[in-house]
Design goal:
The protein has 2 domains: about 55 residues, DNA polymerase, domain 1, CATH 1.10.150.530; about 280 residues, Aldolase class I (TIM Barrel, Alpha-Beta Barrel), CATH 3.20.20.70. The chain has a 10-stranded mixed sheet with strand order 3-4-5-6-9-10-11-12-13-14. A two-stranded parallel ribbon has the order 1-2. It has a two-stranded antiparallel ribbon with strand order 7-8. By secondary structure, the chain is of the alpha/beta class. The chain contains 13 helices and 14 strands. α6 packs across α7 and α8 packs parallel to α10. A hairpin with a 5-residue loop joins β4 and β5. It binds S-adenosyl-L-homocysteine and iron/sulfur cluster. The site of S-adenosyl-L-homocysteine has 18 residues, from β10 and β12.
Length: about 350
């Protein structure tokens, strides 16, 4: 049930030669019913197959031990089970593992597994690269290769789960890419992860992070599930934010503030604001004042992130003491803030850094 990474790699390389066959994970429930009908199989086979591909993380047809051999052979003739190939895996001293995965068209993405006691959090990518161009982000510097399909995003989670051989307790879509520029696939993945027919992860333990694509935040406010929303804020001063996050320049902070107010009114849920402290850029007293004003009086949790240094970048992290001052000052006006522990710092767990390095070699 939990194959090792090598068997996953073997499966993938044998599959890549057969890309004309359709990926089994791209079949809808109805399409699977049709396929079983064509193969003269009873309907209950669909449930068995879905269980293998969505819940049990099968990476080969041979894994599907409760299907008759003849059906496994027919599936193999008509379809492929295309998992990504692992091309790098780095282990951190804190137990985190970072993976660079390659899809059959040679597109690469990163994902990370972060164990904590008996729990396992997975950070997955929604796009290969990103078009938003944030100036402190390695992914932004590389531009967008393409958006990932729902099953490609899902497969990252399965890959990490299979490698750790343990249940995934939470997923954050905070790897590479902007989830709200790939909205439908992102929602489809969140639903699949949440579903008892998928990994059965509670909606509140599924987090999507956006740089602030306003039309999609509005759309997300109307989704029925209790998914968690994180907004990459990084500055509550328009001029600073325009420099740091040019891709969302057209959505003003004022507009973001209003839309987040509507989000809170509609959902009753508390959004997280991500704020990477950058020395001399967004960590001054006036920046702190603007952040306090932005969050004060509304439901908000501020996540102060230690900036991961991107090689060659002009941006450097603020001191830990300054981060603590932010926490204290925000706390004084009732805004809860935490300093996010940097996981996997020794393995370049910053967004985009692993693939960046490999590209340079
Ligand atoms: N595109 C989405 C999600 C992926 S980025 C977004 O921007 O929200 C995930 C998080 O990493 C975001 O909060 C992003 O701002 C942050 N991030 C990017 N580069 C970083 C860096 N060098 N150091 C610290 N955090 C960074
Ligand atoms: Fe894209 Fe997010 Fe990086 Fe900005 S921070 S470039 S939105 S991945």
């Amino acid at each position: 049930m939990y194959p090792d990474t090598n068997s996953s790699n073997n499966q993938t390389s044998s599959n890549s030669a057969s890309s004309s066959r359709r990926d089994l994970r791209s079949f809808s429930h109805n399409e699977l019913l049709e396929l079983m009908d064509q193969l003269h199989q009873p309907k209950f086979r669909v449930q068995q197959i879905e269980e293998w591909i969505w819940s049990k993380g099968a990476v080969s047809f041979e894994d599907m031990s409760n299907l008759p051999k003849s059906l496994r052979e027919s599936l193999n003739k008509r379809t492929v089970l295309q998992g990504p190939q692992q091309i790098a895996r780095q282990l951190s001293q804190d137990g985190s593992r970072k993976y660079l995965l390659r899809y059959p068209d040679n597109t690469t993405v990163e994902c990370v597994g972060m164990p904590s006691g008996a729990k396992l959090a997975v950070c997955a990518s929604t796009q290969a690269g990103c078009a938003m161009g944030c100036s402190f982000c390695a992914t932004g510097a590389a531009g967008l290769a393409r958006s990932l399909t729902a099953s490609e995003i899902y497969e990252q989670v399965i890959h990490v789960r299979n490698d750790f051989e343990t249940r995934v307790s939470s997923v954050v879509l905070m790897g590479q890419g902007e989830p709200f520029m790939n909205y439908d696939n992102t929602l489809s993945v969140l639903r699949r992860l949440n579903s008892p027919d998928g990994l059965g992860i509670g909606a509140r333990h599924l987090t999507v992070s956006t740089c602030g694509v306003i039309p999609m935040i509005k759309r997300f406010s109307n989704e029925p599930e209790q998914f968690t929303l994180a907004i990459s804020l990084h500055s509550a001063v328009q001029k600073t934010r325009d420099v740091l996050m040019p891709g969302v320049r057209k959505y003003s902070l004022l507009h973001l503030y209003d839309v987040m107010g509507e989000y809170v009114d509609k959902t009753g849920r508390r959004p997280t604001y991500e704020y990477a402290l950058i020395g001399g850029v967004n960590d001054s007293d006036s920046e702190l004042g603007a952040l306090r004003d932005f969050c004060c009086g509304t439901l908000a949790h501020v996540n102060l992130i230690q900036l991961n240094e991107v090689p060659g970048s002009r941006f450097h992290p603020s001191s830990p003491a300054r981060a603590q001052q932010f926490v204290n000052k925000l706390g004084e006006v009732g805004v809860e803030a935490t300093i996010r522990l940097s996981r996997g710092a020794d393995i370049d767990a910053a967004c985009g850094q692993l693939s960046q390095k490999l590209r340079q070699q």
